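Two proteins follow. First one:
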Amino acid sequence: MSQKSSLYRTIEILKRLNRGEKLCITTLAIAYEVSDRTIRRDFELIKELFGDFMSKEGECYQAYQKVLLEEVLSATDLMTLANIVNLFGITEKESLISEKTQALIDQSMSVYDFKSRPFENMKNREVLKKLEHAIRFTKEIKISYRNERRHTQCSFQPYKILFLNENFYLVGENISRHAFEFLRISMITEVLYTKKSFHQHKDFETFIKTVQTPWASFGKENILVKLRVSV
């Protein structure tokens, strides 16, 4: 299995496309130790985010124009990109942010100041990579989770990784408790794949898009109560 996250791999592919390289799916799959299908998904994601700037010949892609990050990224996007690089432990030596993009980040920081930054770093990369894979391919997993009070294990159907209140949470359905839960990723000690897949519920997906706090409860809505007072 590849030692690099899909985020790192996708940005690296984008950088090589910007250099004018002709990239072939099978060759990339071997280099990154992933499946051909995974690389195809990477190209689909790049196309979705940056538009149609590549020509396709067989299983190979080549860019016919460059993607200029400064034209597609806002100040908040640039800050997010910088935080992602720092968060996932990409060192200066292996950083994929160009000097020009770094200059844009520095320039934006003269105007913006982002107070909502993560308290925690993703130090356990192996856990994060497994969560990422499980979410992408809708795989049910078994999780070991340790908080201040206890150490528990559960079967879990992961939907998304969310950044809320300066912390990262895995959100999904705890099969063991039949409940939709938010789990602090920094407290997940182990992730094991199972052979089970699952179908995502649209109600859960809608809830995730609208949630604003990790203490929100799925299925609880505001109820209007009308009272008639007799005198």
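Second one, unrelated to the first:
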Amino acid sequence: MYRCSNNSIDRCDGKSFDTFNSNHKSEDETPTEKVVMESDQQDGKSDFRKTKMYRQLRPLLVCMRLFGLYFTRAKTLDGKLQTEKVVWWCAFVSVFMIVNVIRSMTTFYIGESYEHPFFQKAMFLIWSSECTLKVVVLFIFCYRQDGLPEYFTLWSKMCHGIGLDKFCKLLLIKAIVATWIFIIFNSVVFTLVLIYVPILDDIYLEVSWRHANLYRTKYQFKMLLGGLAIFNSSSSLFPIALYTILCFALGLQFQKLTKELSSAISNEGHLEGNLEDFRLRHEDLCSLVTTLNRVYMPIIAAAYAANIPMFCIVMYTLIYSIDIHISIVLINLFWLTFLLMHLLIISSVAAWLSSQAHSALEHIYRLRAHGQSIKDLQLQITIFLSRLTGTQIGLSACHLFVVDRPTILTIAGMMVTYFVLLLQFKLPVGSGVCCCNGTVPENNSVLLINAG
């Protein structure tokens, strides 16, 4: 500790006081926190793998690596890009998924009747195409530096190296557990149902291979469907789990900014602080939204383009095949629940992020321009309002539309309309073809119908 007597106070330089302050500050910080902070501030700019958020997301990223959905490609100390060897496994999974889509196309043939096998093959083709696109998109943006690597780097830089809060950590655990439950149920249980319910062979085996139900041995086709279900299930939900965590973490930062802005504005509309600082912080968060949208906008578009037709197919088969077997009804109900939850998670998370990004708008309207720098304040308010009202901040579907709350209402209304139409056009159970014998008199005034 540095002391200065009254007689020698002039000889005390500023370095002594700076050293005292730094020593006093280091007493409040643990060595672990200091190492983490230095790692995030120094190494986070060059190697995103050392950022705090990336380290906290490792459990989810490890699960994604197991199914070929994620790998890292980061810069080393000499400035060269180093790619993990797991990239070859990811490339193999991508090629395998593409071949699976081509195989699904070969199950259709000219002159095929529009019965239950046709709709099951169509649904499996649509779902496989969606999952394949997710795998390929993640492979591309893991390889490119302007994808997920840029997001982790910008997060560490703009959010000062902070990681996930308690809510996001809990959400991370729940997302991993829920995804594994879905993978096990959709692959193992579905395979067991195919093995022990032979009545489903004529419907579901056609999905794996053309005329597969005519083969003497059918177990290879059932195991093929089970293996494909594992890869499709993992590629369907693990990217959405990562999407949910990143969106919630970013939305909470918008929420934190809005709360600080609200507390800085008094009841009279006076701002305690600099509005430009709030605006620049908001702009930094918007750049994170742009980076995240660059990665996930094709995935969001594929989800809408695939899940809505699949919903229509499942609803049709559920209503028109309810009297075939109870297992078909249960499978269709399972798929209906999955599709609705999948669309709900993607839409609600993106809509919540968009609302949080615009939440500062109502507080900006409360500001009152006053003081000597009234022109500067008015300019800052105008720029801030232009950002909040002139553009839509959020995640989009390939720049076609930004997912917000009206988007959810539009999709929900369309699904309800289709469901009502199916119920209206469904023929009553047991109704047959009505044979009619019509007689038209010469005056053409009355048409007499006699049911035969």
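SUMMARY FIELD: Residues 1-45, 429-435, 441-452 have pLDDT under 50 and may be disordered. Strands lie at 73-75, 81-83, 436-439, 448-451.
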